[in-house]
Sequence to fold (257 residues):
Amino acid sequence: MNDKPLFEIRQGTTPMLVHTPHAGRLVPDGFDRTRLADAEAFDQTCEQVRDRHADTLGLMIAARLHATIMLDHTTRMWCDPERYPDDREEMNKAGMGAIPTRDIDGHPLYKPGQAPGMRERGQRFRLLYTPWHRMLDTICRTMLDTYGRCTIIDVHTYPGEPHPFELHADQPRTQTIIGHNNDPASRAIGARAAALLMGRGLTVGVNTAHRGAITPDGIHDIRLASIMVETRWDTAADPVARHDIADAIARATRGRA
Fold:
């Protein structure tokens, strides 16, 4: 049995939230591997789509800002909490939606007739997706009520070569990418972050190969800002680069702490 929880929250003392949804490896208890079309391909895909070093980088940023951090320990191939749960999700057509059904090369993950049905999808949502988003919403609302502002730092990493299913594979794959949703507050933070990262000698894209940043579905408040920080795997693996990125993001957002 797995002793580790599916996800955890480490409470901070500022209106800053570090969101780290894709660094996990955990496959929850009860997952029936005999249903997989190719167990080895499943394991390989879990590792290939994992945001390597994102948890380490997220914890570094959280420590500098005394921020709350959300850490998802599960593999996104079991349930991906940062996909839309409905037809809004453009990755559904690639089988890489909230409950993935295909591997990284587009091959079926499950044997014919063995893919998760509505009941199993609902169970995975109840165990991870719904409580994850309920917690995201609650944390942001509490910060808005308590401090009058809230800032989300959505931490990810990505490979130097695009995955076959990526929608913007033709875009530059810089060492770092800053994503935002083009609202004034997030755009300003993103610009500061990009300038500080370039000042550290890192190459930076803004809303390029990966774009946007997560916000709770039910909150539409100008006091809420959100940026995504994507770091290329080779850069994320470098302890010096991680230190520089964490410092730059902390400096770019410190005025909102």
User: Anything to note?
Assistant: The helical segments are 39-48, 54-65, 118-147, 184-199, 233-236, 239-253. The first strand starts at residue 7 and ends at 10.
